[in-house]
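Hi everyone, sorry if this is the wrong subforum. Our group has a chain we'd like a structural model of before ordering constructs, and none of us has done structure prediction before. Sequence below.
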Amino acid sequence: MIRKLFPYTKGYRHFIVLGVLCSAGEAVLELLLPLAMSDIVNFGIETGDRAYILATGMKMIVMALLALGCGVGAAALAAKAGMGFGANLRRAEYEKVQQFSFSNIERFSTASLITRLTNDVASVQVTLMMGMRMFVRAPSMLITALVMALTISLRLSRVFLVVIPLLMVAVVLVIRKVGPYFTSLQRATDDLNLVVQENLGAIRVVKSYVREDEEKKKFAQRSNKLRTMAEQAFGFVVTFMPIMMLLMGGTITAVMWIGGHYVFEGSMLSGDLIAFFTYVSEILMSLMMVSMVMMMLTRSIACGKRIVEVLDEQPEITDAAADPVLEVADGSIRFENVNFRYHASTDAWNLEDINLTIESGMTVGILGGTGSAKTTLVSLIPRLYEATEGAVYVGGRNVKDYTMENLREACAMVLQKNTLFSGTVRDNLRWGNAEATDEEIAEACRIACADEFISAMPDGYDTYIEQGGTNVSGGQKQRLCIARAILRKPKILILDDSTSAVDTATDAKIRAALRDTLPGATKLIIAQRVTSVMDADLIIIMDDGRIDGCGTHEELLQTNAIYREVYQSQQEGVSIDG
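Answer:
Right subforum, don't worry. Here is the predicted structure as tokens:
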């Protein structure tokens, strides 16, 4: 895992090296202070040499100031390196997610990906920041202090033969126990984020069905689960602290008791005992720091594995490896023996035995019941999903021959779920063409019948659209999305039930305008209303993932029972309304 995350320290490695050197310098300088203090007690005070005491005291002040400078430098460099590493890691994750197909994203879930981009990265970068200081400072102080203590008194140092093994056993036991809990803790965080995301994303539905209390209960359940997992994980950490303090207190007491006897019998100088006592404290504090960093590292490893899962995930849909086609010649479409299923583990096909030819410039209507795979069919054209078997051709070439960018530039798709982004009306429309002029924007809105309500907005095209388009109606949102697609000037325009929220008169005006202004573009219109597709050059009837029939309106009335039933039921509805 460390090998896979190390490349993301690029650009900040010199900060890491300098920070490590500062931490080492700080540790060494701090460990020299007890020796100087010992000399003052043993030689300066013992002989009454005031000049020696002052000179040694000045050295201690200088060393303390240098240690302070190294400590401040280490902290600043660690923060710089940690934040930079976190930024690189987040950027890499985000760029990888942008390459994912829909199936890749579904495998992780949106909530989990957000947690991995934020919470998990934060945990890893904090560990780097702390590790730069603690992993250098603590071992340096531990080893140096241990050597110094052994130099002062080998007999008194035997106390470490008891305390160090006990501390190591305690650390190993806690780390082995706490690791799985940290992994579960991150999963519980995913679950909580999922509840919040669903609730806020569907807040209108929640309120319209008066489901606030049920959503609160669901949130409370996930929140309590997260709390329980956190209590279990951090409970071991909290339990570890009293054990450490008990061992530290016992060691210090033993050193005072045994060392006091040595001083009393004259086999040890009082200054040496003071220095030894200081080194004991440094050794024990270093062991505590190492153990705390190891526990932080345990959680960081759990988070790092989740990050690496995203970085290692291979997008299911990729560009052609060599010599890709960079331009779509025209809007012709051909499905050749296409079968498709969303999950390889399932036996049932979502699309089965699809053979279909659509000439460039045709207007094609697609009808079918809910779940008949209409959206799935058109999603294969811009490679939002990949055909499991068979091939899809656009402009006479297999869609796999194109780069996804060039293929999707030639296709404009208005999905069932219309999405607008926070920003002005103009900003949203320019998603279709970032270089579009105001005249082109106005023309696209006229074709989509959006100009009439935009002109009534307080700031026209500069009116601010809230996140998700919550300050416009469903019909207005649909027309803005259609205008955005028109600005792309696509060779293939796919309208996936994108006029369901507008009245039939506006629907007819939009279709007529599209026919007149985009005569060369192939137009695929998925609709529930027969009137939306009855004048199409070709109408496709979908049923349970298969093509049940193809033809014009008149042909299907004569030959296709599903089309005839839908048409008659809708005509009866019109007569009743009339």
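For your construct planning: The chain has a mean pLDDT of 84. The longest helix spans residues 212-265.
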